[in-house]
Amino acid sequence: MDIRYIIYVNAKGEVKSYELEDISENDIYIQAVHDGKLKTFRQDRVLFEGEDVVSLENEIQHLLKSGHIEVQKPKVKALLEVCFTGFSKKEKDELVQLAESMQCLVRKSVTTDLDVLCYGDNAGPSKMRDARNKSVLVINKVEFISMLNTGEIPNE
């Protein structure tokens, strides 16, 4: 069985390597089995073709060194997206510092990606209602700090 290795640029601009078997092709497309699934590749997006994995690895190193491809760092979502409301400036600043030290992303308003709204004694009802309507977890300061420290929200 013939095996071919390729470096390919997909429609999103991502550069990936593939081990192909059971290959059929024409001037425009390559169809082959990769990881047990039939895949179709456009010929004009193939950066490299080789018959062995060593030549593939060498070509990847060459492309990286020449700057033709870059290693993309994975996009990492913050641990939590949190918004604070109803706190004094000093207390809010302390909570923001704590949240950021735990890799939380602090938002100034209730957004669609928000995970937690942490409220204090002076929280306005409209922001709390907006958060609940967007299925955001609404908790107080004690619950928030417990969640950061233990991963759990106390029942009491």
Q: How does this structure look, described?
A:
It is a single chain. This protein has 156 residues and is of the alpha/beta class. The chain contains four helices and nine strands, in the order βββββαβαββαβα. It has helices at 53-66, 89-101, 125-133, 141-150, and strands spanning 3-9, 15-25, 29-34, 37-42, 46-50, 81-85, 105-107, 116-119, 137-140. Strands 4-3-2-1-5 form a five-stranded antiparallel sheet, with helices on one face. Strands 7-6-8-9 form a four-stranded parallel sheet, with helices on both faces. A hairpin with a 5-residue loop joins β1 and β2. The longest helix is centred in the middle third of the chain and has 14 residues, at 53-66.
Brief summary:
The protein is α/β, with parallel strands linked by helices. The chain is 29% helix and 33% strand.
List keywords for this structure.
156 residues; alpha/beta; 4 helices; 9 strands; 29% helix
- The helix-and-strand class reads alpha/beta
Tell me the strand percentage band.
Answer: 25-35%
| Uncertain stretches | none
The biggest sheet, with number of strands, parallel, antiparallel or mixed sense and barrel status, is:
5 strands, antiparallel
Q: What is the number of beta strands?
A: 9
Gap between N and C termini = 65 Å
Arrangement of strands in the largest sheet: 4-3-2-1-5
In round numbers, the mean pLDDT is 84
Work out the oligomeric state of the chains in this entry. Answer: single chain
Give the C-alpha Rg: 25 Å
